[in-house]
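Example is below:
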Amino acid sequence: MKRIMLLLIAVSVLSCGTSKTVRDSKKVIKGNWVLNNISYSASGTYNVTLLNDASKDCFEGSTWSFVPNNNTGTYSIEKAGCSNGMRYFNFTIQEVDPETGLYDFLLKPTNQKGKSDTSQGFRLKLAALSDTNMQWQQTVNVEGSPFTINMNFTKQ
């Protein structure tokens, strides 16, 4: 009886943990990345403010750092004519497809100490992830139609 109880406890603890797919993806996302290119699902000229922070032009070339063991990160914008400096965020991973390991996550801006000044967060889809490249997608509605923003990163 004692062994059965220990087995049940062990199974319940293991089932509550993060899946292997997400753990493996966290290992890949860990480190420093550069946001090289931002594109849209529809052609045209758009005035988009990403993450309620800055324009596409300011974000292109920004450097990002991910620390998955505590789900924190930073990005830094350093471009003339932009609001430059380091920004902080927390991210929460939500698994979508165990076969591909791709998932949605919530990126939430914070201050330097990890405290959120707002309840605002941004839901993003991890569309592609390899050892050297990553793509995020954010879908928003523009005049009642879905509009996708693609953010393409390379690992440093």
User: Anything to note?
Assistant: The chain has a mean pLDDT of 82. The CA atoms of residues 1 and 7 lie 10 Å apart.
